Amino acid sequence: MSLNRDDMLRELELLPVWKLRELPSPGREAAAPQTQVPVSEEPGPAPEPVQQQVAEVAPLPDLIEMKVEVIAKVNAEPAVFAENRLERIRHLDWPALQRCVQDCVACELSATRTQTVFGVGDPHAEWLFVGEAPGVEEDRKGEPFVGQAGKLLDNMLAAIKLKRGQNTYIANIMKCRPPENRDPHRGEIAQCEPFLERQVALMQPKLILALGRVAAQTLLQTDATVAELRGRLHSYNGVPVIITYHPAYLLRNLADKARAWEDLCYARRTMQELQAATQV
Ligand code: URA
């Protein structure tokens, strides 16, 4: 199908675009069709130079350039907004960050949550435990890991002589519950992770224990599995990270509890080393 100029302009949503143009005097551009002035058969006085204004469509290359500029601007703006949002989050203090999370409507999870779940514990703790997302009970209570998986997490803490709220902080990658306990989508994680990033920057914990695949993959920006990632020290924005299984997974896969126990022992040893290193 071949398009004529008008079809093409319409297709580009550029019609009608008008600009006022001054016509050149007839003497200078006698050949241009718009400049034709009725010529009398009779010789007579030379016509006055015509200063006529006509509406004319801008040249096609100009219009295409204008269109390209508009599209580039429209596409750039969400990136600018996103960048501004990240910049704002990066400068919040703890109470402002809590308010920002409470008011967040950056993804569709805000529509189905009962409340946001910021985290629980001592914001100056050396230990940070990071899970995936609130479940139904956490959504109801506004506290992470309060269901069955939470009971197991408390037992895991006790196994290495820790207690919820004492030198520990527990948070999730996601601050809102995904409906039906589905996995959070990539876009939702991208909107929410800056909150955890700011929590970590403000807390400066000595060690992060990432619980399960979503926490591990988000913090380490990888698609590797928990099995592949556990047993060695990683880093998240300069903070050492150890990966272990999610308590909810362990409730269903008892055989991996022994591996989780190894991870906890490894974490405890690592913390002792980190504490010793900062005491020197
Ligand atoms: N699972 C998580 O990952 N986080 C919670 O807060 C509860 C269950």
What does this structure look like?
This protein is α/β, with parallel strands linked by helices. It has a domain of 187 residues: 3-Layer(aba) Sandwich (Uracil-DNA Glycosylase, subunit E). It has 11 helices and 8 strands. It has a 6-stranded mixed beta sheet with strand order 3-5-4-6-8-7, with helices on both faces. A two-stranded antiparallel ribbon has the order 1-2. Strand 7 and strand 8 form a beta hairpin. The radius of gyration is 33 Å and the shape is globular. About 13% of the residues have low confidence. The structure holds uracil. The site of uracil has 11 residues, from loops.
Give the tags:
280 residues; six-stranded mixed sheet; 13% strand
Bound molecules: uracil
| Poorly predicted parts | 17-21, 23-45, 47-55
Strand and helix order: HEEHHHEEHHEHEHHEEHH
CATH class of the domain at 93-279: Alpha Beta
Provide the CATH superfamily of the domain at 93-279: Uracil-DNA glycosylase-like domain
DSSP strand content: 5-15%
- The overall pLDDT average reads 84
**Which secondary-structure class do the elements indicate?**
alpha/beta
Largest sheet descriptor = 6 strands, mixed
Helix content: 40-55%
CATH fold topology of the domain at 93-279: Uracil-DNA Glycosylase, subunit E
Shape: globular
